[in-house]
Amino acid sequence: MKIENLQLRALPPTPDADSTPFWEALADGRLQLTRCGSCGTASFPPIPSCPRCAADTVVPVEASGSGRVYSWATIHIALDPTFADDVPYTIVAVDLEDGPRMLGRLLDRDGPPAAGLAVRLVPYRVDGNVLPGFRAD
Ligand SMILES: [Zn+2]
Question: Which of 102, 121, 127, 137 sits between 20 and 30 A of 113, alpha carbons compared?
Answer without folding.
Answer: 127
